[in-house]
């Protein structure tokens, strides 16, 4: 284990470094330019370096790990309680230095370039879907102003639009009709771009053994499988599937005092995107699958549907971790047996 602990507050151009000498006890707090950041650590003995998991942290973590240092990426909410006084780079670096030494702090897994590339594809696809939804809603609103109310669903919208354009063309100037047609053409172009990204994700999915292994789980498709493998990083970073589900925010929040514990709604911590995919997959299993889990169906009869959906998503998250951590294949009806 490295003796020297260093807290680093990274930024775009200037990084703040905070450490305390293990020999003299001297407090060192210096600013380092981006171009000279790696030079600061290149000739040093291996040390423990803490950084917040923010933009660029994964890149620097890989670089420092290659030098032989131990790097821990900490979520910002884990660092904030240790920051006192006014906010500054020096205070943030000191807070990181304190937080990285605390026991029980959940760190963010350091991802490879390939895993980050897959996550980048997911983020760009998510952004395109938001743009497409905004364009569709704007087109619906404009047509509603002229008495053309479009049905729900993109397929139904595509079927109704040609007739709607012909009807409003008799009442409106041609420049507006041309603009509306261009708006619809942008929507189709966004559809094409989304499909291109999904095609690239499918190619990576076919080559990755971990993705193919977990894709057999009901409710886990292309997006969920690739996002899980890329987001989780090393499965051994989690002690159990229960811890992974808690990291995703699929467990109840707790309020306890005086020995009494009250369970609330799910915590919604962790990666929102992956949690959303798991919940949508669980909802599809419960509502559309020919053979949904019997326990989940019985739960949905006793409790609200959303509770059953989240419970199934929690089960899926734990199964995902087990298959990835132990490199096993999915088996229907598998029961855990005590060793």
Q: What's the structural blueprint in terms of helices and strands?
A:
Layout: E1 5-9, E2 14-20, E3 27-33, H1 37-42, E4 48-52, H2 57-66, E5 70-74, H3 76-79, H4 89-99, H5 113-144, H6 154-169, H7 174-207, H8 209-214, H9 222-232, H10 241-247, E6 252-257, E7 260-266, H11 272-288, H12 294-302, H13 305-326
Parallel strand pairs: 1-4, 4-5
Antiparallel strand pairs: 1-2, 2-3, 6-7
Using the CA coordinates, give the radius of gyration.
25 Å
Q: Give me the count of strands.
A: 7
Secondary-structure element sequence? EEEHEHEHHHHHHHHEEHHH
The number of helices is 13
Shape: globular
What structural class do helix, strand and pairing data support? alpha/beta
Runs in which pLDDT lies below 50 for 5 or more consecutive residues are none
Average predicted local confidence, pLDDT: 88
The percent of residues in helical segments reads 40-55%
| N-end to C-end Cα span | 32 Å
What does this structure look like?
By secondary structure, this protein is of the alpha/beta class. It has 13 helices and seven strands. Strand 4, helix 2 and strand 5 form a beta-alpha-beta unit. The longest helix is centred in the middle third of the chain and has 34 residues.
Short structural summary:
With 339 residues, this protein is an alpha/beta fold.
């Amino acid at each position: 284990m490295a003796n020297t602990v260093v807290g680093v507050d990274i930024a775009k151009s200037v990084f703040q470094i905070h450490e305390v000498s293990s020999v003299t006890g001297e407090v060192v707090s210096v600013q380092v330019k981006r171009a000279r950041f790696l030079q600061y650590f290149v000739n040093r003995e291996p040390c423990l370096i803490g950084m917040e998991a923010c933009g660029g942290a994964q890149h620097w973590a890989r670089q420092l790990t290659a030098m032989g240092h131990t790097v821990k990426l900490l979520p910002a909410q884990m660092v904030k309680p240790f920051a006192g006084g006014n906010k500054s780079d020096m205070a943030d670096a000191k807070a990181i230095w304190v937080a990285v030494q605390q026991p029980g702090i959940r760190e963010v897994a350091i991802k490879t370039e390939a895993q980050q590339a897959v996550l980048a594809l997911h983020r760009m696809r998510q952004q395109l879907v938001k743009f497409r939804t905004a364009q569709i809603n704007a087109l619906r609103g404009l047509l509603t102003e002229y008495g053309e109310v479009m049905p729900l669903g993109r397929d139904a919208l595509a079927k109704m639009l040609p007739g709607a354009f012909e009807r409003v063309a008799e009442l409106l100037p041609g420049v507006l009709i041309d603009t509306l047609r261009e708006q619809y053409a942008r929507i189709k172009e966004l559809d094409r771009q989304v499909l291109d990204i999904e095609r690239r994700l499918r190619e990576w999915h076919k080559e990755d053994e971990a993705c193919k292994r977990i894709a057999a789980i009901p409710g886990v498709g292309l997006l969920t499988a690739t996002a899980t493998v890329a987001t989780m990083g090393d499965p051994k970073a989690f002690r159990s599937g229960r811890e992974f589900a808690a990291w995703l925010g699929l467990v109840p929040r707790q309020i306890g005092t005086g020995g009494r514990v009250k369970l609330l709604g799910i915590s919604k911590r962790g990666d929102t995107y992956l949690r959303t995919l798991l919940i949508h997959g669980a909802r599809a299993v419960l509502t559309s699958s020919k053979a949904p889990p019997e326990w989940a169906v019985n739960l949905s009869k006793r409790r609200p549907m959303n509770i059953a959906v989240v419970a199934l998503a929690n089960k899926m998250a734990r199964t995902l971790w087990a298959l990835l951590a132990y490199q096993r294949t999915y088996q229907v009806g598998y029961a855990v047996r005590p060793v």
